[in-house]
Design goal:
The chain is of the alpha/beta class. It is 48% helix and 12% strand. Keywords: Chaperone.
């Protein structure tokens, strides 16, 4: 039934405001707790943890990709269920389906995620200097804010979007459309927020290095590389892949103890080609 009529039901939810909730009961999807089977919103609500107010979901290209998403780390650790939406139409669907049975929907890749009670005020304060410095260092990358995250466990950082802006998945969908409006894309892209994991050794070490010398170019380069890696892992397309590759190669040079001023050997083939062309020119003149 769902394979045959699923897309029609989703389009009905988008277009028919009167019957939206009735149609939403028919929605089927996989989740972190459905064991590869389809489940419903009513079944999801029946499994919600005590005190959980929102229905958590994430959008992407496949279930396999989403299962590895850093956005799920802390939610899975705390045993929260997250819905997988992998159909491109799901992005449009969730712009219209704002709530169900009194529960709000929360995209876990966007700002505003609340997981239980916040207990990290002192932790946030201890990273205040780093987050302020990092925001200034990323001034040219349209990063609106850098802040301590409550959604990470094993990953150093992620890039989230504003609540009403496009997700990384929606950006990819819109960019792939031939007749997409670039000015609308810039407006709907919304702000980007870099969220850092204060318990991760990379972030803790970076904080110490910034405290020692905030003007160190090496530290700035490292911070930029970490951000670009987080951007890619969070599902965004890199605006300048060449710049990212250059930073990776610089990092590899450093790890191999190669001098940053090391030059590339000249190619002997260039000289041979020039000699061959000169020989052909002189031979042509002799024939004349």
């Amino acid at each position: 039934f769902w394979n045959e009529f699923g897309k029609s039901i989703k389009l009905g939810i988008i277009e028919d405001a009167t019957n939206r909730n009735r149609l939403a009961k028919l929605l089927r999807f996989e989740s972190t707790k459905s064991d590869g089977k389809l489940t419903s919103l009513d079944q999801y609500i029946s499994r919600m943890k005590s005190g959980q107010k929102d229905i958590f979901y994430i959008t992407g290209t496949s279930k396999e990709q989403l299962e590895k998403s850093p956005f799920l780390e802390r939610l899975k650790k705390k045993n929260y269920e997250v819905i997988f939406f992998t159909d491109p139409v799901d992005e449009y669907l969730m712009q219209y389906l704002m709530d169900y049975e009194g529960k709000q929907f929360q995209n876990v890749s966007k700002e505003g995620l609340k997981i239980g009670k916040e207990k990290n005020k002192e932790l946030k304060e201890s990273f205040k200097e780093l987050t302020k410095w990092w925001k200034n260092a990323l001034a040219g990358d349209n990063v609106d804010e850098v802040k301590v995250s409550n959604r990470l466990d094993n990953t150093p950082c992620v890039v989230v979007t504003s609540k009403y802006g496009w997700s990384a998945n929606m950006e990819r969908i819109m960019q792939s459309q031939t007749l997409s409006d670039s000015s609308k894309q810039a407006y709907m892209r919304g702000k980007r927020i870099l969220e850092i994991n204060p318990r991760h050794p990379i972030i803790k070490d970076l904080r110490e290095r910034v405290a020692k010398d905030s003007e160190d170019e090496g530290v700035k380069q490292t911070a930029q590389l970490i951000y670009q890696t987080a951007l890619m892992e969070s599902g965004f397309n890199l605006p300048d892949p060449k710049d990212f590759a250059s930073r990776i190669y610089s990092s590899v040079k450093s790890s191999l103890n190669i001098s940053p001023d090391a030059t590339i050997e000249d190619d002997d083939d260039v000289e041979e080609t020039e000699i061959e062309s000169e020989t052909k020119e002189s031979a042509g003149k002799d024939e004349l």
